[in-house]
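Q: Sequence in, structure out?
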Amino acid sequence: MTLDIRVDRDLCMGSGQCTIYAPRTFAQDDATIAYVLDPDGGTEEEVRDAISACPTGALSVAGEDDD
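A: Exactly. Output:
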Protein backbone atom coordinates (compact mmCIF):
# COMPACT_ATOMS: atom_id res chain seq x y z
CA MET A 1 0.00 0.00 0.00
CA THR A 2 1.32 3.41 -0.97
CA LEU A 3 1.45 6.02 1.79
CA ASP A 4 -0.20 9.35 0.98
CA ILE A 5 2.81 11.47 1.96
CA ARG A 6 2.26 15.20 2.41
CA VAL A 7 4.78 18.04 2.42
CA ASP A 8 3.69 21.38 3.86
CA ARG A 9 5.82 23.60 1.65
CA ASP A 10 5.07 26.61 3.86
CA LEU A 11 6.62 24.86 6.87
CA CYS A 12 9.59 23.29 5.09
CA MET A 13 12.85 25.10 5.87
CA GLY A 14 15.02 23.03 3.56
CA SER A 15 17.11 21.18 6.15
CA GLY A 16 17.29 18.13 3.88
CA GLN A 17 16.77 15.58 6.63
CA CYS A 18 14.09 13.87 4.56
CA THR A 19 16.52 13.35 1.70
CA ILE A 20 19.01 11.79 4.10
CA TYR A 21 16.55 9.38 5.72
CA ALA A 22 14.53 8.56 2.58
CA PRO A 23 16.54 9.64 -0.47
CA ARG A 24 14.48 7.61 -2.93
CA THR A 25 11.23 9.13 -1.61
CA PHE A 26 12.07 12.81 -1.08
CA ALA A 27 13.97 15.42 -3.06
CA GLN A 28 14.41 19.19 -2.87
CA ASP A 29 13.63 21.77 -5.50
CA ASP A 30 15.85 24.72 -6.47
CA ALA A 31 14.67 26.61 -3.37
CA THR A 32 15.61 23.56 -1.22
CA ILE A 33 11.94 22.93 -0.41
CA ALA A 34 11.10 19.24 -0.08
CA TYR A 35 8.78 17.37 -2.39
CA VAL A 36 7.79 13.74 -2.83
CA LEU A 37 9.94 12.28 -5.57
CA ASP A 38 8.44 8.78 -5.44
CA PRO A 39 5.97 7.67 -2.73
CA ASP A 40 7.02 4.07 -3.35
CA GLY A 41 10.73 4.86 -3.56
CA GLY A 42 11.68 3.70 -0.09
CA THR A 43 10.41 1.59 2.73
CA GLU A 44 7.68 2.69 5.10
CA GLU A 45 10.28 2.72 7.88
CA GLU A 46 12.48 5.12 5.91
CA VAL A 47 9.54 7.44 5.26
CA ARG A 48 8.48 7.41 8.90
CA ASP A 49 12.07 8.07 10.01
CA ALA A 50 12.20 11.04 7.63
CA ILE A 51 8.90 12.36 9.00
CA SER A 52 10.20 12.04 12.56
CA ALA A 53 13.49 13.76 11.65
CA CYS A 54 11.86 16.78 10.01
CA PRO A 55 12.68 19.72 12.29
CA THR A 56 9.61 21.75 11.33
CA GLY A 57 7.03 18.98 11.13
CA ALA A 58 6.43 19.72 7.45
CA LEU A 59 6.09 16.03 6.55
CA SER A 60 3.10 13.82 7.31
CA VAL A 61 0.99 10.95 6.10
CA ALA A 62 -2.56 11.93 5.17
CA GLY A 63 -5.13 10.74 7.69
CA GLU A 64 -2.71 10.31 10.57
CA ASP A 65 -2.79 12.61 13.59
CA ASP A 66 0.05 13.62 15.87
CA ASP A 67 -2.28 13.40 18.85
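The helical segments are 17-21, 44-53.
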